[in-house]
Each structure stands twice: as C-alpha cells, then as structure tokens.
User: Fold these one by one.
Assistant:
Number 1:
Amino acid sequence: MNENRPPAPQLSQRQQAKSEVAGFTALADLPKCSVIISHFNYSHLVENALRSVIAQDHGSFECIVIDDFSAEDHRRQLERIIRKLDDPRFTLIMQPRNCGQTQSVFDALSHCTTDFVAMLDPDDIYSPSFLSGMLAAHLNRVQIAALATCDMGLYRVGGSRLSQVFSRFSRDSEGRGEAQNHADMLERHGYSEYFPPWTPGWLWCATSSLMFRRDVLELIRPSKPVTYHQVDAYCAQGGHMFGGTLFVNRVLSYRGLHGSNLMHTSRLFSAYQQRHERGIANIAPQAKLDALNAFFANDGHRLFQPARLLKILQAQLDTDSLADIVETLAQKAKRKT
C-alpha cells in the first residue's frame, strides 16, 4: 500500500451539484434500447426494415441483425446492405445453421446490452416514432408490464399504405363505449389499456408490434431447441403470462404485403378475409406450453407468490395442460430432494 499516494480530489459543492443534475438528466431521457431483426432469405426486402430503424426519432438504439443461415446469395446481399448503410449501431450475426426464427431471436438476445428489446420482421417497417412511443409506454407512471404492443398498419411492399388498423382493439373499444377513456389513458400515460397476465386470448398484432422488457425474455429463454418461426407466438404469450401487456392504440409499425410471407394473399379488401396462408399450422398453443416449460426450467416460479401463479395458470391453461405442469413441478421437486 502506498502511504504517500495523494488523496483523491474532492468535488466542490458546485461540481457535485452539476454531477447530480447530469445523472438526473440521463435518467429523464428515454433509455437506449435494442432491436432484433431475424433474417432468412429476405435480402430483397430487408433494407426497407433497416432504414425504418435508422429513421427513428429516438436514435439511442442497437440493432442486432441475425441471419438464420440464408441461401448464399441472400447472405452476401445482406452483408452488402449492412456495409452500405455504414451505421455502427448495427451488428450482423451469421448463424452456422438454420435454427428457426424463435431460436435465432434468443441467440441475438445474448448480444443485446439494454433493458428493452423490440423485434422487427425483415418485411415490415417501423414508423419514425415506434421506439420512442413504446419506451414511453413502458416508462408510464401507472403500470409495469412485461411487454407493450401497438396497433399496426398494412402497406404493399413497393407500393402504398393500405390500412391504418390491424388489431380489433379500436373496433372493440368503440363497441364497448370505452374509446374516450382509452384515448385519455394514451394521452396521459402513453398506453391505452393494460391486460393483466390472467387475460387469455391473442392480444397482439404481430412480431413488429412488440417491445419487451429484457428480463422477461430471459425468464422464458428456451430450455430446449424450438424450431418454429412464429417468434411472436412464443415471446408474446410467454411474456404476457408473467407480466401482462400494455396496448398502445397508435399505428407505430406496418406489416408488409408482398405475397411470399405467411399472409394468405397480398390483396386487402375486408376485415373478414383470411389473413394467413391455408395449411399453416397454428403453433400458438404449443408455443405457450414451450414458454411455460422454459419459465419453470429457469426457476421463474420462485419469483411469484404461489397463489398469484396459480391464478395465471388456471386462466391460461386447459385442465390437461395444468395437470401436466403440476406433474412436472412435482418431479422437479422430487429430483431436488
């Protein structure tokens, strides 16, 4: 120990006050956030998505682009696009094999450094206020939630905007006479309605409408390989079950119609037409169970009061699934004794 070392300099009262103000200002600003784009053979579409991230009015972000082992020509084109954009906020990761969208998103999550994580499909785009709007919703003064979702519009890739509505939220809000209350909540607190974890059903639009608290994504990080592509089915349902959802009734992102994704057709003429391609398996029930199993494998249940967790499970699961979960917990407890 060097006893002759000079004492550390002391801050004057003015310097200390200035430092405290600087810290407060940093906390008052919207925080840095992450955007994950999982790419597979969409190099002809992804540049629009990337440019919509660059165009955000909240510029403090990192964007992790992960290629899920696309065909060689798509991989090379994606690399060219990233180089052309020349933005240090973008990181490109190349998967060594095809893992599926859900697994790729969680692989990309390991490279994120922030507390809030959004996801953008490579054929969709953000409005310029997506990140700021979703962060404002998360940082409201009323309710903490695992994820926030906005309404989406629809646009024809290479063409024009087609719709300013994707979800049923506005229609149902008007029908129940709650539209003014929801508008007031949005104006005052940044979100329109909070759905608690025991609210069942599909409450979201699609992947590109979502922003999560990173902690809930880590809580449902898959404990075994998941190879399906609908990451929203896994993450939205899984996150919602353990923290609820904030709905932001603003169009802050747009779904691209182009005839080669899961949409049934690139034509849009009715709220009642089939949205998804016929023959596409509904993986939502299995994704919910997979997220739930990951939650238990990651010891998430230790973070909840048993009565509250039981309320969630009873609302979200059918009798057989609930019985399976109870059996899984019993076996897990037996192995630890």
Note: Confidence is low (pLDDT under 50) at residues 21-25.
Number 2:
Amino acid sequence: MLSLLPFSCKGKNPVEEAGDTLIDVYEGSKVESQQVTLKSIQNAINIYHAQYGRYPESLDEISSLMDTPIDIDMYEYNPENGEVRIKHEID
C-alpha cells in the first residue's frame, strides 16, 4: 500500500523545494542588507568622531548622518571605542 503514495518520503516535492529556495534567497539578502547598513553606521560613527573628537554616546546621535532610518535595536554599540556590531553576531 505504501508504494501507491504519489510522493516519496525520502525527498521534497518541487513546490517545497522552490519554497525553500525562495526562503534561502530572502534570508541571504536580509543578511547582506544588514552588512551594508552596518558599514553605513560605522562610516557615520567615523564622521561623527572626526567632527566632534569623540564617539557618539549612542547610535541615536548619528541618525542625522544616515541616509535611511536604522533599527538601533539590531545593533550593539560601544561608545568607548566606536565599535558597532549586529547583535546576532555577538550572541
């Protein structure tokens, strides 16, 4: 009876495979976008440091230097040395 089933339990059907591919592409582009934003944030921090001779107290202070709004909750920032990282990279 089991041999009459249309799909084998061993692999995924084409719709599942296509869905998995789309999810992988989406996740990859999300990571790339976060990396680009991270570089923009670091550049804004460097500009701020050059203008004021100190690092910003928080990422809120550099928001005016950014072209687009940032979700500051996604980043961990150290005002002592100006380092910023994506939080999931630290965990």
Note: The beta strands are 75-78, 83-86.
Number 3:
Amino acid sequence: MNRKIIITAFLFFIASCNSPQIEDRKLKSTTSQQKKTENVVLKKDSFEYVIDKRFNDCIEDNGCTVCIEECTIRAIKEWRAEMNKYYTLLLEKLDKSSKEKLILSQTKWLEFSELELQFSNEFYGAMDGTIWNGVGLEQSKEKIKSRALNLKSHYDALTGDAVRK
C-alpha cells in the first residue's frame, strides 16, 4: 500500500511539472546548442526529434533503472513544454470558434491524461519489479509526445509550415 502511495505521488509530480529541465548530476547536461535547436531532421531517411535524440543519448550514457527513469522524466518535461508551446501558438492564430474548441479539446485531453496516469500507476504499481515503473513512464512520454506533435501539425498547417509533398 505504501509503495502505491509513493508511486502515485511520484507520477502526479511528473504530470504536474512543466519545466523541461531536471537537475541531476548523474545525467549528462544538455548543451546550450541542443536547447536552441528545436525538432529537426537528424538522419537523412528518417525523422528523429531532438528531444528523442537527447533521451536516447541519456539512456545510452546512463544504463541503471533509476537513471533511465530520470531520462524519461526529462523527456516527459521537454515534450510537455513542446505541447504547451504549440497549444499557445495555436491559440494566438485561431478564430474565436476554433479557439474555444481547442481549449475544450486540450482540457479534455488533460483530463484523459490524468485518468490514464492514475490507471497506469495502479496497474504497473501492482506488478513486481522495478522495470514496471519505467514502462508506465515510457507510455506517458509517448502520449505527451503524440499530443505535442499533433498540436504542432495543426500549427504548421495553419501557418504554411507543413511539409507538403
């Protein structure tokens, strides 16, 4: 029971954080050049977002379970910042009707995300082994990333920055 409470508190802390930085000496720090660079193509034949590159580098450099969880938490915060950035940018560009729908959509998405986090915490918290915490965190990261990229695609379409083939 105590473990579930601790895990729940930990996951709520993660969900409530909007800052894209974690101060942890175990993890390699992000260079200022990396922070300036937004999502860019890093490989010729595939897209790899800078946040994902930092996350993958962090995991490669820090192999322990706790370190991987910290890498994931950092990526969650960075993707959440991206999501908030494109949400704000969209709100500035939309007409009143579309703005109201986006606000409602984001509110409902955040409600869903919170319920999903509670479910995930309860589901994985009941399993034996420390790896399950990481599985839940990875799923949260991917959901937030997906929402951030969805908002970005709306913004790109609206501003003409969408990639057209």
Note: Confidence is low (pLDDT under 50) at residues 4-45.
